[in-house]
Amino acid sequence: MNRKNPLPNSNPNSPNSSMQALHFLQALARIARAAPKPAHSARTRQIRHAAYASMAHSSRSSRRTWSRALLHRLRQWQQQRPGRLLTVRRRVRIVTPITSRPEEPARAETLRQLVPGGRGMEYCNLLEETADYVQCLRAQVQLMQTLLDAFSS
C-alpha cells in the first residue's frame, strides 16, 4: 500500500499548520530584530526553541501533556539564561520509581523518554500523545522544508 499521506489528519493546510507557521515566523522576526546579534550556537538554539514553542502553541489542544511539558521546559530555559537573577524554589516530591509494567511492551519505556511529559503516563494515553506529537513534528518538518525552499530559490 503506497499512500502519500499516512496520517489522515496531517494536512499541511490545516489551521494548526498555519498557526504553527505564523508563530514560528513571528518568533524568527523577533530573533532577527534582536539588537546584539548572538553567536552562531546561541542563534541556532534560539531558532530551535522558537520552533518547539510554535509547535507546542499550535497543537490542537492545550490539554496535551507533551505541549505543556515542552512549554514548561522552554520557560525553565528562559529563566536560567545568564544575566538573570534566578530564584530557586524547591519542591519536595515523593517520586515512585517507574518500573516496566508486565502488560506493556518493553518499547513503551523508550517511547516515554522520547515524548515530552510522557514519563508518568499510562500506556493508552502515551500512544495518543505520541500520535499527536508525531503529527505536530511532521507539520514542523513540512514547514521548515517549505521555508527552506522559499528562501533558497
UniProtKB/TrEMBL annotation:
The name this protein goes by in its record: Transcription factor IBH1
CDD domains in the cross-refs: bHLH_AtIBH1_like (cd11444)
Domain IBH1-like N-terminal span(s) in chain numbering: 23-76
GO annotation, biological process: regulation of DNA-templated transcription
Highest taxon of the lineage: Eukaryota
Keyword entries, A-Z: Nucleus, Transcription, Transcription regulation
UniProt source species: Rhynchospora pubera
InterPro entries attached to this UniProt entry: bHLH_AtIBH1-like, IBH1-like, IBH1_N
Annotated compartments: Nucleus
Any Pfam family matching the protein: IBH1_N
GO cellular component labels: nucleus
